[in-house]
Amino acid sequence: MADPAHIDQQALDEAVTFTSDLIRYDTTNRGGGDGLERPAAEYVAERLADAGLEPQLLEKAPGRTNVVARLAGSDPSADALLVHGHLDVVPADAAEWTVAPFSGEVRDGVVWGRGAVDMKSTDAMVLAVVRAWARAGVRPRRDVVLAFTADEEDSADYGSGFLARSHPELFEGCTEGVSESGAYTFHADGGRRLYPVAAGERGTAWMRLTARGRAGHGSKTNRENAVSRLAGAVHRIAEHRWPVRLVPTVRAALTELAAVHGLDQPDLDAPDFDADAFLDRLGRAAALVAPTLRNSTNPTMLEAGYKTNVIPSTATGHVDGRMLPGYEEEFVATMDTLVGPDVEWQFQHREIPLQAPADAPTFAVLREALEHFDPQAHVVPYCMSGGTDAKQFSRLGVTGYGYAPLRLPEGFDHQAMFHGVDERVPVDALHFGVRVFDRALRAL
Length: 444
Prior knowledge:
With 444 residues, the protein is α+β, with helices and mostly antiparallel strands. Helix content is 31%, strand content 24%. Strand 8 and strand 9 form a beta hairpin. Helix 1 (9-24) packs antiparallel against helix 3 (120-136). The longest helix has 17 residues, at 120-136. The mean pLDDT is 96.
C-alpha cells in the first residue's frame, strides 16, 4: 500500500486542533452519573457531518451523550470494523498542574490537558483521518462504525453499556474493534522501541466488604468488633500473593519480548519456570507484563464508626480487584477464603475479562502499519491490567484490540499520563498516529 497523499498537512493540523478543542470541554466524570459529555459530543458530530456522515446523538440521561456514525466501505460483503473512543475524563485538580488542565494549551510542541492521552487525542486522530478520506474520496474496504462514548471512566452504564443494550442495531456486522491503550512507544533497555498492542484485558471486580459485630463502648473488651474484623480481612487481602497464571496473551508477550531482548525462549510450561525471575531479565520491558501475571486485589477505601469511644456494629471496605481471563472462579473462591467467616463481600461492579488472538491477520495489519512508519519498531502483544469499553462491545460479538498509535520520545512516560498530573501529548506523536491510523484502518 503506497503512502497516502490524502494525509496532508490539513489532516495533521486538524489532529492537533481537535485534541486541543476537545480538552477545553470539561467532560469530567465524577462517577455515579455525574458527568456532561454533550458539548464535546456535539463538537464531534459537527465534524463528522462536515465529512458527509450522518452522526446520531444518543443519551441514556440528559447530557450523557454518545455519538455513533457509519462510514460505508467499498466491499458490502465484508464484516464491519468498530473504531471507538470515549469523551469523558477523570477529575483534575488545577492546583497540581503546570498548565490549566482544561486549557488545551499547545506549548513547546506539546498539547497539554486532561484527556490529552486518555483519550481525546485518539478521538481527534480518528476524526482527522475520516475527514481526510472524505476530502480525497477514499473509502475503506469494510464499513467503519465510529462510536464516541460517554461514561467509560466509571461504569459505562451511560455510554458503551447503554449503546450495546439499547442500540445494538447500530453495530450490525461489526466483528472487530480498535480503541485505546496500545501502539504507543515504550522505550526499553538498549534503545529498543517497543509498541505494545493490546490483545486482552483483565476483568473488573470492584467489591464491597461488610463486617458486622456487636456495638458497644470503646472502653470495654469486645471480641465481636466489626472494625477489627474488617481490618483483618483487608490485611489478608492486601498481603495475599496471587499465583502466576499465564493466559495466552501474556504467553505471547513473554515469547516476543524474549526474542526482542535476545534471550533464549522460555519454557512457559516447565514446572520450575519462574515468571518473576524471567521478568527481571527484561529490564524496563517487564512493566508491560508484570501487572497481568496474576489476578490482583487492592484495598482502596474504609468506612466505619462515628465517634472514637463508640464501637460500631458495622464496618465497610472497598477493594479494586482484577481477574485474568479463565480465572474468575478461582478469584471468587479465594476471596471467600480471604475475607473469613465474619465478613461478607459482594461485587459492586463486575466486568468480564477479554482475549483477542495475537496471531490473527488483524494483529498482523496493526503490526505492519506501525513498522511501516517506524522501521525500528518492535510490536508486541500485551494484556491490559485494567479495562475499556471493549468489554461492553464484546457482548455484540466484537473482538477488540488496543490501538492508539503514538511515537513518543525517550523519557516520555506514557503510562504515567493516564489519570496523572500534567497529562500531555507531543504534536509529532499525533502526526505519527494519524498516518498509522490511516494505513491500518484502510488495510483492515
